[in-house]
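Posted in: Protein Modeling Q&A

I'm a second-year student putting together a small comparison for a lab meeting, and my supervisor asked me to include a predicted structure for Protein PhnA. I've never done this before, so apologies if this is the wrong subforum. The sequence is pasted below exactly as I got it from our records. If anyone can share the structure token output, I'd also love a short note on what stands out.
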Amino acid sequence: MSTLPPCPQCQSAYTYEDGAQLVCPECGHEWSATVAAEAPTEDVRVIRDAVGNVLADGDTVTVIKDLKIKGSSLVVKVGTKVKNIRLTDGDHDIDCKIDGIGAMGLKSEFVKKL
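Accepted answer (user: helix_wrangler)
Welcome! Here is the predicted structure, written out as tokens:
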């Protein structure tokens, strides 16, 4: 049994061949089987927001939940717009600057892409 590569968009393992194309049944993405065979296998981490949108460096997001700041009486309110985010590895996968608060790390599960 041959193993097919996972979907490059959603990383689903349920890909199948359709002629010369590979197809992902979960997201509907189609790509060439020859390109997939030639591409080096990279372990790319995809960071998604609370509703499943893929985040990238420089995106603008909004906070979807009041977030208390540890060690402070400040709160990041729902609807706060955060511009120019940077994606990082670790528990808090977004580094950003929030007006009135300063530099901090956020978890992607508490933001929504604009």
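A couple of things worth pointing out for your meeting: The mean pLDDT is 86. The first strand starts at residue 16 and ends at 18.
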